[in-house]
Write a structure and sequence with these properties.
alpha/beta; TIM Barrel; 2 domains; 4-stranded antiparallel β-sheet
Length: 470
């Protein structure tokens, strides 16, 4: 892909910069270097695209509460199944979901094929606890992959390796199971191997029955339930056998980012912070950047919640996306359809405003990554090859300046308009004594003073495109 040189240059710049700061001297073994290289090639398209949609939709949507409702209320299987018996989202139209994602500038999407409650949104042969039992002929996973591919977006599937419905998943004493405090299960013997076979078979169905799947997003490991408890290596190898190009997240619990090494790059492709933005690139033990992706809700819940009106502003989402890219990460931004399968109205307004910004500024996101300049008090830099993008997001007095950059710059323009910025090498009000310093600001018809404050063309994030000399 054309983005490869840019991504590799970004990685090289950051590694060099980090090594200088940290005094890295340990040399990784050859097997690690090969595993890391193979991983970078596998995630190349994903790191280029940077922005995706997460879709939380399942029988829990019928409740118009959080998707953890069953365990938070410690409901029995009978109690919960009574609540979701009417889940028949007849108005589900995945084509509308796909158009929403494309409008926002997203390049891929991930749907919850099965969440922790165990209800399958696909036509599995392993259980009747599935969408086609509620709505014969409606395989939501199938409708999803077809609709999003038709819009040119890559598709991925979320799959929970835990299951609060299956009889052989541990109940009493488990950290999260709804029946964890129900003493009637105290002496129950669970055939966990049977559950593992069930779980692996469902994953096999997902990676064999729906065409090309770009991402497998597993969730989640905890306590002793991680890694080989899931027969994770066998699971990953099976997935790759059927989907050779697929990328897989880290939530099978085969490793962690503090000691990420050969094994992890062979079985996990990227790290998944949730509801928090890393303030710097995430590194492995050799100082190499680990690919990562922030998963983030639009309000405070993943599934549709009728009482949650804490919607994040388009400005906050755009700033979060920029911060992710500036620190080497992606943003997977969530949408929760209502119980009928329709997109709640607030999403349309938020996504439309994000899309309007992406339409003119997407160049500063797609194919970009961190620069060596780091965070600034006015915003962030992103970089693609010899192009720097200065995202002026926060209130700031006067110009932007970059030390030791004036002789490296061909030109500076405002990305949205293409207009040349006001640029100078020196300004008498700066008494630092620095030479070769780049100062820039927007131009106005009325005045060309570098240190003046002007109304920025975009109050969400005005992006300056800084073309560097080859």
């Amino acid at each position: 892909m054309k983005c490869a040189p840019g991504i590799l240059l970004i990685i090289f710049i950051f590694i060099s910069h980090h090594a200088q700061l940290q005094g890295q001297s340990d040399q990784p073994p050859a097997a690690y270097t090969q595993a890391y290289h193979d991983m970078l090639q596998r995630v190349e398209w994903w790191q280029h695209d940077r922005f995706g949609m997460f879709i939380h939709f399942g029988a829990y949507s019928q409740l118009e509460q959080e998707e953890w409702y069953k365990t938070n209320k410690q409901l029995s299987h009978a109690e919960y199944d009574g609540l979701i018996a009417d889940f028949k989202p007849e108005k589900t139209d995945c084509r509308k979901w796909a158009k929403l994602a494309k409008m926002a500038g997203m390049k891929y999407a991930i749907l919850t094929a099965k969440h922790h409650e165990g209800f399958c949104m696909f036509d599995t042969e392993t259980t009747e606890y599935k969408i086609t039992s509620h709505m014969p002929g409606r395989d939501i996973v199938k409708e999803f992959v077809e609709a999003f591919r038709a819009e040119g977006l890559k598709v991925g599937l979320y799959y929970s390796v835990i299951d609060w419905h299956h009889p052989d998943y541990p109940h009493f004493g488990d950290d999260y199971h709804p029946s964890r405090n129900d003493s009637t299960y105290m002496d129950t013997e669970h055939d966990f191997d049977n559950y593992i076979s069930y779980m692996h078979e469902q994953v096999r169905e997902l990676v064999t029955n729906y065409g090309d799947i770009s991402i497998m997003w597993f969730d989640f490991s905890y306590g002793d339930m991680h890694g080989e408890k899931w027969k994770a290596k066998e699971l990953v190898e099976m997935v790759r056998k059927h989907q050779p190009g697929i990328i897989i997240n880290n939530r099978l619990g085969l490793g962690n980012n503090e000691d990420w090494g050969i094994r992890e790059y062979n079985y996990n492709m990227y790290y998944t912070p949730e509801q928090r933005v890393p303030d710097k690139p995430i590194l492995d033990k050799y100082g190499n950047p680990i690919p990562w992706e922030l998963c983030l809700t639009t309000n405070n819940n993943w599934s549709f919640h009728k009482d949650d009106h804490q919607w994040k502003s388009p400005e906050l989402i755009i700033h979060t996306l920029v911060k992710c890219v500036a620190n080497g990460g992606n943003l997977l931004f969530n949408m929760g359809p209502d119980k009928n399968g329709e997109v709640p109205e607030p999403y349309w307004d938020i996504y439309q405003k994000i899309g309007a910004w992406m339409k003119v500024n997407g160049e500063s996101i797609y194919g970009c990554g961190p620069s060596e300049l780091g965070r600034q008090d006015w915003g962030y830099f992103t970089r693609n090859n010899n192009i720097l993008y200065a995202h002026r997001m926060y209130p700031h007095i006067g110009y932007i300046d970059i030390k030791d950059y004036f002789d490296r710059v061909e030109q500076v323009t405002v990305l949205a308009t293409g207009e040349k910025a006001l640029v100078t090498e020196s300004w008498w009000g700066d008494h630092s004594g620095d030479t070769n310093k780049l100062y820039f600001n927007i131009k106005t018809p009325q005045n060309h003073q570098i240190h003046f404050n002007y109304i920025m063309p975009d109050d969400l994030d005005t992006v300056f495109r800084i073309e560097l000399k080859e």
